[in-house]
């Protein structure tokens, strides 16, 4: 029951995180591209601020539930006298998952903070370049997330 709950929290958090990145990158960004820079950047500032608050929670839940599941499986194997061998797909998920959390923290606490200052000071050129960097790193995180999903969900189907 605990394991199933952890896995549900894990997957729901991933849905919020990956789904939000897909929406922002492929639907919101192109739709606002032709707005005047002040309007576009104020809108993106508001949307990203709300989204990043949700991702802060979702990314920490992903990490905590993932590590907790790993710990439970490892403990059970060791308690029943075996030695725990982490499956390759889990190792890839853990390493890339931690990288994704690190990249998100950089986006939120370095790039978004910079963007926030630019919007407050109405510096639209500098704001545009901060936003472009956010877009770049969100695309990297989306790529890593999709890779983790493919490795995790397609394992054992060859
Ligand atoms: C942050 C570090 C992470 C750790 C330590 C971790 C660990 C785990 C563990 C132990 C499981 C249970 C696997 C099972 O019972 O078969 C799991 C399931 C899963 N994880 Fe992660 N994970 C992490 C990040 C991620 C990320 C970033 C994604 C997707 C982008 C992801 C997607 C999934 C999915 C879809 C499942 C369900 C797999 C299934 O039931 O077939 N995880 N994770």
Topology:
Blueprint: H1 2-32, H2 37-79, H3 88-120, H4 124-154
Helix pairs in contact: 1-2, 1-4, 2-3, 3-4
The structure holds protoporphyrin IX containing FE.
Protoporphyrin IX containing FE (HEM) is lined by residues 7, 10-11, 14, 18, 62-63, 66-67, 69-70, 90, 93-94, 97-98, 100, 145, 148-149, 152-153.
Describe the 3D structure.
This protein is mostly helical and 158 residues long. The protein contains four helices and no strands. Protoporphyrin IX containing FE binds next to helix 1, helix 2, helix 3 and helix 4.
What is the share of helical residues?
over 70%
Strands, total number: 0
Secondary-structure-based class equals mainly alpha
Poorly predicted parts: none
What is the string of helix and strand elements? HHHH
Largest sheet: none
Task: Choose one word for the global shape.
Answer: elongated
Q: Give the end-to-end Cα distance, rounded to a whole number of Å.
A: 30 Å
- Average pLDDT reading: 96
The percentage of residues in β strands lies in: under 5%
Q: What ligands are attached or bound here?
A: protoporphyrin IX containing FE
Using only CA atoms, what is the Rg?
Answer: 19 Å
Number of helices: 4
